[in-house]
Amino acid sequence: MSAEANGRAALLMVAAMALFAIEDAFIKLLGAGMGVGLLLVLTGLPGAAIFWIRLRLRGGRMLSRDILRPVVLLRTLGEIIGAVGFVTALAKGDLAATAAILQVLPLALVMGGALFLGETVGWRRWLSVILGFAGVLLILRPGTQSFDPVMLWAVVGVFGLALRDLVTRLVPADLPSDILSGAAYGAIVPAGIVLILLRSETLAMPTPIEWVHVAGTVVFGVSGYAVMVAALRMGEASMVAPFRYARLGFALIIAALVFGERPDAITLAGAALIAGAGGYAMWREARLRGGGRQVVGSLLRASRRRRGDGTR
Q1: Which domain holds residue 181?
Q2: How far is CA 36 from CA 52, 269, 304, in A?
Q3: 237 falls within a domain
Q4: In a domain? residue 311
Q5: pLDDT by residue for the chain (312 residues), tens digit each?
Q6: pTM, two decimal places
Q7: Residue 293 belongs to a domain
Q8: CA 29 → CA 133, 143, 214, 231, distances in Å?
Q9: Which residues contact 290 (CB under 8 A, 6 or more apart)?
Q10: Which of 30, 48, 124, 192 is the most exposed place for a label (fewest CB within 10 A)?
């Protein structure tokens, strides 16, 4: 691919990360006055509807036996765990810290690919995985007064999303991605209902401003997904992938300007360690696969199928 195409793809990826960061801000705004269960229901329903409409326009249908395949059900379970963990951390914790922890996902995929899919991972990438999770520990700081248990939900979210993306590699290529995406959004709705019941959440009609925030969550999430897919199709994945870390930069800016968050030096150091380790792992993978002309397999193969970091 030409340098011009890669340049445009990189800009699109940065734009997608900006859209996802704004989506995260809307989720956090909703979490200030709404239970996590209701939040999941209100964002899952329109998301599922969007992909149902896409399927109908293409002559497909959502309610088919395909969504009952074991591999699809396992992928959907990962989506539910990821959504519950990430949304809980966003709604109840710091946006900056949650966004930083989310960036360890590519490294979790490297580890999962080696442990469960038999992929070969050299010592350099194992070292990057260790350093990335060391960055997570710097952010969490367990055993100290700075430790916030809510942030453990972000770690749960990462492992849920890692399960989703690892299982996606096992999904047959002929299964439309819209079915996977629609099933994921749809499964979030009953998961939200279960949370409402388990936590005895108080249900109330959302205020007009909360409906605006719900709309913002869906619009920016789906738009981010569409732009990200366009970026991956336009440019080489190995060239575009590192720009995913732009999401962290946008999240830090939004956290400071909108929510008044001021991450301390240790948190920033942990975020930098995660981003640096993840970026190196991507570069190393691309180099091993021949200068980056093939998709960064152990990190991004799932990206073309994922429903878009609507909650992730």
Answers
A1: 3-304
A2: 24, 30, 28
A3: yes
A4: no
A5: 577 777 888 899 899 999 999 999 999 999 888 899 999 999 889 888 888 888 888 777 666 777 788 888 898 899 999 999 999 999 999 999 999 999 998 899 889 988 888 888 888 889 999 999 999 999 999 988 889 999 999 999 999 999 988 888 888 877 777 788 888 888 899 999 999 999 888 888 889 999 999 999 989 988 887 788 788 777 776 677 778 889 999 999 999 999 999 999 999 999 999 999 988 887 777 677 654 444 344 444 444 444 444 445
A6: 0.83
A7: yes
A8: 28, 29, 10, 28
A9: none
A10: 124
Q: Kindly state whether residue 73 falls inside one of the protein's structural domains.
A: yes
Among positive and negative, which fits the CA dihedral 218, 220, 222, 225? Answer: negative
How many domains does one find in the chain?
Answer: 1
What are the helix (H) ranges across the chain? 3-31, 36-57, 70-92, 95-102, 105-116, 123-140, 152-168, 177-198, 208-234, 237-240, 246-259, 265-288, 297-300
**What single DSSP character describes residue 32?**
T
Matching residue, tokens 């966004």:
99
Structure-block tokens of residue 101: 């922890």
Q: How far apart are CA 97 and CA 128, in angstroms?
A: 20
